[in-house]
């Protein structure tokens, strides 16, 4: 691994790409846990991102592409791999009713652009902590809106080639797509013109503030139900999980779908608590309950 890290560092120097060998997951994920990463690369230009991603594939190096880190929980053990941190690869352009944003652009910045141009159906972007690339991968959404309704095309790097995928080629489903096996370089959205965009987003934010625990670090809602037969947070509440604590991790008293880092939690605490809730709910409901959080370095 050390040899490969050296080669990747050479590549970063050649392209003038920022990198570090002492970043921890806890500083780049919203839940604030996780150990040290062997190499973190932070491209600011498309060519830098593509060069490093191609090299990761070529050398078969263990790696993860990271957006805002709002859906990722990592182990406290050192990560013997590479994190390609996309959040500096930013830029957004609006033409008519279409918007093109680079993969690391924050959803907040994309929402600002939508608001300025009176484009509607993307108000949810104003209340989800994400990059547009991560939001596309996760088919993020809330309050009846989601990425799959507004994405027209995605520019990806896959098997060494830049390829444009149409919406229908992204396999969008509940909190899922097939974009997690490639690098999302840019996303093109198509939205209708409409009124009251800012007001609708503000209503969504208010509803979130009322229903979700935003005062402690988290990775958002931990579980989802793929067959739509139940709402995991409601089932977790019925099973008495609210307030249950394991190490520094705790199920929110406000929303049983959120597992919080309340006191220097380890990634393992979060993982274990989420796994216990998931298995309990699966047994109780018989529904297809899945983990929304992407765990890194767990069994
Ligand atoms: C307080 C809070 C509230 C939340 N509310 C919601 C909500 O209402 N609705 C909702 O859907 N989600 C919600 N989430 C979860 C999270 O914000 C979304 O899943 C979001 O889409 C993750 O985006 P990200 O950029 O942070 O991606 P990350 O968390 O960094 O990564 C998520 C996945 O995408 C991959 N990925 C990221 N960027 C790229 C890229 N450019 N190319 C290829 N793969 C990539 C990662 O490898 C990983 O598999 C919430 C989270 C928090 C902390």
Give a nutshell description of this structure.
With 299 residues, the chain is of the alpha+beta class. It has helices at 2-15, 25-28, 46-59, 107-116, 132-138, 197-211, 232-238, 267-285; strands at residues 18-20, 37-42, 63-66, 72-74, 79-85, 92-95, 98-102, 141-142, 145-146, 151-158, 161-166, 183-190, 218-221, 223-225, 245-246, 249-251, 258-261, 289-291, 294-296. The protein has a 5-stranded antiparallel beta sheet. A 4-stranded mixed beta sheet has the order 1-2-5-3, covered by helices on one side.
Explain this structure:
- With 299 residues, the protein is an alpha+beta fold.
- The chain has three domains: 2-85, Uridine Diphospho-n-acetylenolpyruvylglucosamine Reductase, domain 2; 92-197, Uridine Diphospho-n-acetylenolpyruvylglucosamine Reductase, domain 3, CATH 3.30.465; 214-296, Alpha-Beta Complex (Uridine Diphospho-n-acetylenolpyruvylglucosamine Reductase, domain 1).
- It is built from eight helices and 19 strands.
- The protein has helices spanning 2-15, 25-28, 46-59, 107-116, 132-138, 197-211, 232-238, 267-285; strands at 18-20, 37-42, 63-66, 72-74, 79-85, 92-95, 98-102, 141-142, 145-146, 151-158, 161-166, 183-190, 218-221, 223-225, 245-246, 249-251, 258-261, 289-291, 294-296.
- The strands form six sheets. Strands 6-7-12-10-11 form a five-stranded antiparallel sheet. Strands 1-2-5-3 form a four-stranded mixed sheet, with helices on one face. Strands 13-17-16-15 form a four-stranded antiparallel sheet, with helices on one face.
- Helix 1 packs antiparallel against helix 3.
- The protein is globular, with a radius of gyration of 19 Å.
- It starts with a helix and ends with a strand.
- The model has no long low-confidence stretch (mean pLDDT 97).
- The structure holds flavin-adenine dinucleotide (FAD).
- Residues 30, 64-72, 86, 103, 128-131, 133-135, 137-138, 140-142, 179-180, 183-184, 214, 218-220, 294 line the site of flavin-adenine dinucleotide (FAD).
């Amino acid at each position: 691994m050390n040899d490969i890290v050296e080669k990747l560092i050479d590549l970063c120097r050649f392209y003038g790409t920022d990198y570090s060998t002492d970043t921890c997951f806890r500083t780049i994920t919203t839940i604030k846990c996780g150990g040290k990463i062997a190499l973190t690369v932070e491209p600011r230009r498309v060519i830098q991102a593509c060069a490093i991603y191609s090299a990761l594939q070529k050398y078969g190096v263990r790696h993860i592409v990271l957006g805002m880190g709002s859906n990722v929980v990592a182990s406290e053990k050192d990560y013997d791999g590479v994190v390609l941190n996309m959040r500096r690869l930013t830029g957004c352009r609006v033409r008519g009713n279409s918007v093109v944003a680079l993969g690391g652009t924050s959803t907040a910045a994309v929402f600002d652009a939508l608001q300025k141009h009176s484009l509607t159906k993307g108000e949810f972007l104003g209340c989800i902590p994400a990059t547009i690339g991560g939001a596309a991968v996760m088919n993020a959404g809330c309050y009846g809106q989601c990425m799959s309704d507004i994405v027209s095309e995605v520019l990806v790097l896959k098997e060494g080639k830049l390829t444009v995928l149409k919406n229908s080629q992204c396999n969008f489903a509940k909190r899922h797509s097939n974009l997690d096996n490639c690098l999302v370089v840019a996303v093109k959205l198509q939205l209708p013109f409409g009124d009251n965009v800012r007001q609708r987003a503000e209503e969504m934010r208010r509803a979130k503030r009322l229903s979700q625990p935003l005062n402690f670090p988290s990775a958002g809602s931990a579980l989802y139900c793929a067959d739509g037969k139940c709402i995991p947070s409601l089932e977790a509440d019925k099973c008495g999980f609210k307030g249950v604590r394991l190490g520094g991790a705790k199920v929110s008293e406000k929303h049983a779908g959120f597992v919080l880092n309340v006191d220097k939690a380890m990634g393992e605490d979060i993982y274990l608590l989420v796994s216990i809730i998931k298995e309990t709910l699966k047994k109780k409901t018989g529904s297809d309950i899945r983990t929304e959080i992407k765990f890194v370095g767990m069994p």
